[in-house]
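Same chain as my last thread, 416 residues:
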Amino acid sequence: MIYTSRAETNKHFWDDKKVCHSKEEWLKTDPFAEFVNFGEEYKSLEREHASNRENKDNSNPTNSTNNIELGGKLNPTSGSYTHNGTSFGTSAGQDSGWEYGELTKRFDAFMKENPEPHHKREVAEAIGTSYNDDAFRKLLQRSVKKGKTRILYGGDRIVYVNTDWKDSRVSFKDDNSLPSLGLKLPFSMEFYIDILKRSTMTVEGEVSAGKTHYALEFASLNLGKIPIRFFFAELGTPRMLALLEDYPNLLEAVKDESDDFILINTDINDLDVLESLDPNGANIYDYLRLQGGDRWWLDMQLKLRAYAKKLDEGFLMVNLQKLKGKSIALGGEGNRFQCETAVTLNTRETIQGSDILQGHKLCRLDIEKARDWTGNIAPDAMSVDYRTGGHRGRLYMIEHSWDLKSTKQERDKGEG
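reply #2:
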């Protein structure tokens, strides 16, 4: 393959009178030759600019055919290249510190240090250039082609692709012990499941099956062990404070404005939950709402993934709506791909009440997913029965009701 150097010619940059016989020699001769592909694409690019040069030469007599417009100008006398008012020295390689290389280094460094998705305009500004700058567009194209950067759906956002496996190599010199948070769970579920640092749990519940009370029970059990942020939506502040009457320790913490338990109404000023999470604390979100659009189910999964990545040594519990009689929450199976633990809350029967007990519901909690076991029993094989009660529906476990799901199902059939 012969590579034509526009820095070596006094005619046009595709002139083949003076050539380089290797790609390396070509790039050394002309740093900005990376802007020009070779082969058929090379010829296509020449044809694309031919009419522009002809029109410019005819309209501006002082502009000779030696001034090539390709995101800048090449001076045929000095061999220097100017782009957006910035001189990059000679294109014959005499200036070893040419600016395009520095721009590429800044781009690579920024993307590696900030691996989360970014808008292209944001990246351009961060590395000191313009979103519409030809140099930025070209280096982005090269980065995507080399697999260092990926363009997300929609085309406006980009994300860093880590290809350095050495940084991810497992070493026994590191501390590989399981980083348990030692937290308690409602219904003594910690007997089966261990909550580790940087883990997520979804609570998928039917309407009035007790999702909010389950989350409040968790907060009440762990108050003082870890800072807790309780994000809630739609319920409203007066109703939430009324529910806290069943949890005196939480109510007292809110009155004292303690940092041990912070109650946050996300409906006030449309709070961004993602940016408000405590990376090293326990975060409870009651509940993740359905998103609009045709891809709402995918948006829910992406949000759960983003929340999980926000954690450092903390924990996240997210409540999700589940239709009655369905085995999985709205959003589908993909929701469970984003978490370490998943449970479902299901209503089984409504009781009218008696002389000693108000009307209540009989419900069942099923463990659907558990990566981190406490003992030798598979948690996702277990379920427990509970009832609603108290002044506003607090949950109470029915004693000695932990059992295998299969056993409960056989028992239910016999009772039916």
